[in-house]
Specification:
Elements (H helix, E strand, L loop, with lengths): L2 E8 L6 H17 L4 E3 L17 H10 L7 H13 L2 E9 L7 E9 L2 E7 L19 E4 L2 E5 L8 H9 L4 E6 L14 H17 L2 E6 L1 E4 L2 E4 L3 E3 L5 E4 L5 E8 H8 L9 H4 L26
Parallel strand pairs: 1-2, 2-3, 7-8, 8-9
Antiparallel strand pairs: 1-14, 3-4, 4-5, 6-7, 9-12, 10-11, 12-13
């Protein structure tokens, strides 16, 4: 495929799954009308993100537990599949996933859908703050073949760690997709001068450039729980240039691009002829004494994924 149209949506989230789903479907229609073939939505846009990342909330845990869905069985997911099929497009969205065999196990997941159904799922590996009290971590950064290119996913805090996107790039990802709930440091009154907006921009551009891959970011906007979100869903090219930005309110970043051509040029001529992955030398470092390993052991007789 030569050129494709990408869309990244900024949306507010609510503690109302039916309302969130209706917003997803509304923007799918808008994106399809604009010619989009791949549409990206924010982290936890189906159930809503945690009201805070620094304070445990029993109500928040109960909400996520009650409204989580098993991906292959969830009514909301099946609705989105039907619309992806009808509109003939691919989409990525964030949700609370319930383990198919252990109902008490939840994941903060990004789901890749296409006209043929579920193409892939990514479970967030790096978990900040109170996420650790709600979700189990994932343990892999998979890459999925699609007609649009090879797609890898990460979620929010994963972007802070260069190994996340480097693994996706080394596995052959053309497009790195990041649903996120990236808030302001404060109440949002500083606007784009807020330091968290600056770090969001810095990480996104660097991760695209250092891997010479496409990066698509989709963020929440407005107040949700105790937090305030700055939007700026973006499409970033393999040179780290932001070529589309939704702004800080509900909206859409849209761009028509040649995925493979841009990657080939960035890795051959556009950056002094340097191909970063070809020149990459893995660093062999001992495990950090600060690293805590997380794992989940299923109950006897169960089978984990």
């Amino acid at each position: 495929m030569s050129e494709i149209t990408l869309a990244s949506i900024t949306l507010p989230a609510y503690y109302d799954k039916s309302r969130n789903l209706a917003n997803l479907l509304r923007w799918l229609e808008r994106a399809a009308q604009a010619g989009a073939q791949l549409v990206v939505f924010p982290e936890q846009i189906l159930q809503g993100y945690l009201p805070d990342t620094l304070n445990w909330s029993r109500e928040a845990v109960c909400w996520q537990m009650e409204h989580a869905e098993v991906i292959d069985e969830g009514e909301s997911v099946q609705t989105l599949i039907r619309h992806a099929r009808r509109l003939n497009l691919h989409l990525v969205f964030g949700m609370t996933e319930r383990h198919p065999e252990h109902s008490e196990v939840l994941f903060n997941s990004a789901v890749l859908l296409g006209p043929d159904g579920v193409l892939g799922t990514y479970r967030k590996v790096h978990q900040p703050g109170d996420e650790k009290h709600v979700y189990y971590p994932g343990n892999d950064f998979p890459v999925f073949d699609t007609p649009l290119g090879r797609i890898g996913m990460l979620i929010c805090y994963d972007k802070v760690f260069p190994e996340s996107t480097r693994e996706l790039a080394l596995k052959g990802a053309d497009i790195m997709i990041m649903p996120t709930a990236w808030g302001y440091a404060g109440d949002g009154s500083a606007g784009d001068a807020d330091p968290m907006v600056d770090s969001y921009t810095l990480f996104g551009r660097v991760r695209a450039l250092e891997n010479q891959c496409w990066m698509i970011e989709s963020n929440l906007c407005g107040q949700h729980g105790n937090l305030h979100y700055h939007g700026h869903s973006r499409i970033i090219n393999p040179l780290g240039e932001i070529i589309a930005d939704s702004g800080d309110r509900e909206g859409m970043a849209l761009a028509t691009v040649n995925i493979r051509q841009a990657i080939q040029r960035s890795r051959s001529a556009d950056y002094l002829g340097y191909h970063f992955l070809k020149d990459y030398v893995p660093v062999k470092a001992p495990p950090s004494p600060l690293t805590v390993q997380h794992c989940y052991t299923p109950v006897a007789g169960g089978q984990d994924e």
